[in-house]
Structure formats: structure tokens, C-alpha cells
Design goal:
With about 230 residues, the protein is α/β, with parallel strands linked by helices. The chain has helices spanning about 15-25, 40-55, 70-75, 105-120, 140-155, 170-180, 205-215; strands spanning about 5-10, 30-35, 65, 125, 160-165. It has a single domain (about 5-185), classed as 3-Layer(aba) Sandwich (Rossmann fold), CATH 3.40.50.620.
Length: about 230
């Protein structure tokens, strides 16, 4: 019998960590996929990817890091274009922020599906969160439903599925899920702007800090500033 192998997209953030913890529970073996796309915190995110992979004993043969630096050539995002400043958190908004990387998740999933065909993996886990969908259109459940149809139409073995186990969770629920499963939150990174100490004021830092405050847990990563958001 073939092993039950799943691919997990691991950015190095909290959402993908919780996703990896759930995938570990549901599958016999995991393969981890990470993308370098010219983001400001690329080195730190890669460090976190390997730390999380070490924690879950993912072999080197089942870790893949792909260069998508062309996304920085395309630009259009404060994460990849140094001419666009990373904005401080200004409160919740329904507008798409300039941290959105155009069509990134579609490109990432395409690589994951390609690798799944090679490995014979039937499941691809991604830590998309619907709470982010007001800002990121490629985090909506409808997007993953549509992409699943693309997989069915465009692959040799059309039985690959996308699994989004945290898509309906809030950030504080994601933290609690990760903590309850013994996942190493201290090995994650969420900051959009800095790699030594998290800035504490970008959108991603604010959402993370607010979630930790809500459940009265101490965020274990270092911050240059720790504003109160609740």
C-alpha cells in the first residue's frame, strides 16, 4: 500500500503552522513546500520553514524551496517592491491592501499541484484564512472551490484536492489550535517589514498581536514595538 502523503504549503507564519499540525495528524507522511518570491522577510521566512520542518521531522528529500523571484519583478505589492512602503495598521478595512501580491496564491498552488503529480500526493494543505478575504481575494473559499475544478480539468490524475483546515478560523482560534497541538509558535514569523525583530505595527503584526491579546497569551517572538490592539 502506498503511503498517505500530503503536501503542506509552509510560509513560516502561524496559519501555515496550524495547517501543518493538522496535516500531521491526518496523514502518514508530509512534504513541505516553500516559496521565495522576493518578499522583504524572505530569509526569516525560510529560516522558519526549516525550523517547522525540523519540528515535524520532514526529510530533506520532502522539503522543496522554489524560487518565484519573478513576482518581485512584476511588483505591485509592498511585500516585493521596495518603492512601496509597508503601511502601519490603521484598523480593519474592506479595501485590498497594497501588501496583496497579485495572483500569488494561484501561482503557488500551481507549483504545488505540479509537485503533487510527481509525488503521487492526493492532498495539498494551505493555511488560507477567510478572515483575510476582505483584503486578499485569493483567500476566499470560492477561490479554492474554483481552483479545485481547474485541477480536475488540467491534471493527469485528477484526484488531487486542496485542503483549507483553518479557512473558517479567526486568528485567535488559529493560535489556540496550534498551541493545543503542541505546534512551535515561537518558530513562526508574521511581520511584513522586518527580520530581526517584528515591527509590531504592520497589518500582519497587528492582527497577530491582537489575537494573542484576545486569548491572554504572550506572543513568543521578539518585537521592536508591542502596541495594544484590544
Amino acid at each position: 500500500m502506498e503511503k498517505n502523503l500530503a503536501i503542506v504549503l509552509v510560509s513560516g507564519g502561524m496559519d501555515s503552522l496550524a495547517c501543518a499540525a493538522i496535516a500531521k495528524k491526518e496523514n502518514e507522511e508530509l512534504a513541505f513546500l516553500h516559496l521565495n518570491y522576493g518578499q522583504r522577510t524572505e530569509s526569516k521566512e525560510l529560516e522558519c520553514f526549516h525550523a517547522i520542518a525540523d519540528h515535524y521531522h520532514v526529510s530533506q528529500e520532502l522539503r522543496k524551496v522554489i524560487d518565484l523571484s519573478f513576482l518581485s519583478q512584476i511588483g505591485g505589492s509592498s511585500l516585493t517592491d521596495k518603492n512601496i512602503e509597508v503601511k502601519d495598521y490603521k484598523g480593519d478595512s474592506g479595501e485590498i491592501p497594497d501588501s496583496y501580491v497579485p495572483f500569488r496564491n494561484t501561482i503557488i498552488l500551481s507549483f504545488a499541484v505540479s509537485w503533487a503529480e510527481v509525488l503521487g500526493a492526493k492532498r495539498i494543505y494551505i493555511g488560507a484564512v477567510h478572515e483575510d478575504s476582505s483584503g486578499y481575494p485569493d483567500c476566499r473559499p470560492s477561490f479554492y472551490k474554483a481552483f479545485t475544478q481547474v485541477i480536475k480539468e488540467g491534471t493527469k490524475n485528477n484526484d488531487i484536492s486542496i485542503v483549507t483546515p483553518v479557512i473558517s478560523m479567526s486568528k485567535d482560534q488559529i493560535i489556540k489550535t496550534a498551541a493545543d497541538m503542541g505546534a512551535p509558535l515561537e518558530k513562526t514569523w508574521s511581520c511584513y517589514a522586518k527580520e530581526d525583530k517584528a515591527c509590531g505595527v504592520c497589518d500582519s503584526c497587528a492582527l497577530r498581536l491582537r489575537a494573542f491579546e484576545k486569548i491572554k497569551m504572550e506572543d513568543p517572538i521578539p518585537y521592536a514595538k508591542r502596541p495594544k490592539y484590544t
